[in-house]
Amino acid sequence: xxxxxxxxxxxxxxxxxxxxxxxxxxxPADASGGTWTATLDLTPGWSAADPRATGSVDIxxxxxxxxxVTATGLRPSTEYMAHVHDGECDxxxxxxxxxxxxxxxxxxxGNIIELSFTTSxxxxxxxxxxxxxxxxxxxxxxxxxxxxxxxxxxGIADNRVLCGDLDDD
Length: 169
Prior knowledge:
The chain is an alpha+beta fold. It contains two helices and nine strands; from the N terminus they run H-E-E-E-E-E-E-E-H-E-E.
């Protein structure tokens, strides 16, 4: 009899283990990767300074991330920075903070997706960057930042020129 009891206990343990396999739903906070696009629109602070500025961004993030940004109507021969952000464009400030691969880590290279581009004489700029970081569902928007010197010269409080909410493709 003891061997039947041991077999029954072992069978019950296996059934309990197997019943948990595959039954957990994926936690949306753990979702990584995807494809996003955004139309980049002027932020309220820059609408008078650069009224024709606009742009777009295409992001693919599956195993690694590729970001392609294009912008027009910006200042000629000016270097701009751009980042993936964790808030929406209607927030204050537009786009919230930088998206961080490790939310508890530093807001610095290696933990953010950033790129820079210099506009042409006609105010057109574009750039493509690759990163080993993989975006997740905390990525909400893409923001183009003006250089601090330009922001100060214009008397504008925020350097966020363009912002676009990311749309899943």
